Amino acid sequence: MSRLGDLIRTERIRQNMTPKQVARKCGVSESYIIAVENGTRIIADDQARRILKSIGLKQQTEADFSLDDIAATVDLAQASPSLSGAVKKPAPAPAPRPQAEKVASTEPEKESEGVTGSIWLDALTSVLKNVPVMNAVLQPVDHRLLPIIQGRIEGGAPDKVFYFLAPDDSMRGFRIHSGDLALIVPAQSPIDGAIMLVEYNNHRFLRKIKTLSPTSYLLQSYDREYDAVTVQLREFTCIGRVARVEFTL
Questions:
Q1: pLDDT by residue (tens digit) across 95-147?
Q2: Rounded CA gap, 162 and 246, in Å?
Q3: pLDDT(200) > 70
Q4: Which fold is adopted by the domain 3-85+117-124?
Q5: What's domain 129-246's architecture?
Q6: DSSP code string of 168-231
Q7: Which ranges in the chain belong to alpha helices (H)?
């Protein structure tokens, strides 16, 4: 069974709906819905969104996942034996696809209380993560949706990584400008040659690290000209390393 089919069946049962009721809301046949649930039919994103919406998922969830996010991240390839190379248990053959698959019913769509926090969001926590964007005092000001790959984001725990909004041009010589977003993966020890988010003299900023000795380091910046401060390990704190930088054109 595909991830999409498994989720549709689970949520449909939770909503006390039959395949026929879902099919009627979507303007498709009952056998079509059954085939999708069984993972024997691969469908387009727009049809996936239509089915999800028909069983009660709102256009925008409380965790800022949209129907587009859900439909686009479902692993539909797993539903096809020809793509995976595996032989699946035979399922009932789907009926011919109707010429039009538009919602024909005028019946009001059911919006059950609590649907936005239901199984959909639980399933998506293993696929997507709302990563916060932090300012210079590490207060959230925005967020970005990032994929989770093999349980990690750029090698870090999904609930620990965050974006740091560069507050100035002190690192532009290292290609990080004011307003750029640096993805921070937690690291408590200095990494030679890495650009890291550090706390020094009660300020948090990005600096390139150079190791001078096991206890002495250079914190390098480059605005209009190169600058560096020699500090002892006990004098500053490493918050994390920069895994990548995003900027706006």
A1: 555 544 444 444 444 444 444 455 555 556 568 889 999 999 999 999 988 88
A2: 12
A3: yes
A4: 434 Repressor (Amino-terminal Domain) (1.10.260)
A5: Ribbon (2.10)
A6: SSTTGGGT--TT-EEEEEE-SS--TT-EEEEEETTEEEEEEEEEEETTEEEEEEESSSEEEEEE
A7: 3-14, 19-26, 30-38, 45-54, 67-73, 81-84, 119-124
